[in-house]
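Justification of computing resources. Each target in the renewal requires a structure prediction run like the one illustrated here; the chain below, 78 residues long, is used simply to show the kind of job we budget for.
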Amino acid sequence: MATKTISIMEDVHSLLVRNKHKGESFSDELRRLLKNKGSILDCAGLWSDLSDRQVKEIKDNIKKSRDYTKEHIKERLR
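Resulting structure tokens:
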């Protein structure tokens, strides 16, 4: 397999070194980090076929879940 040489800033190199798994090459690490990473734009329009009522219901459920989680964390910290 052909190789390429790239230049990166020292702080980026340090991040790569710190996050590299044991036995993993930099190529393996970069492949792992970049694999299956989509764009936020891939989500654009996903809810376009939902009614306003359905969107509100989803948002309300998300809020309820977040509120529950916050309370649960507060209780565990006491």
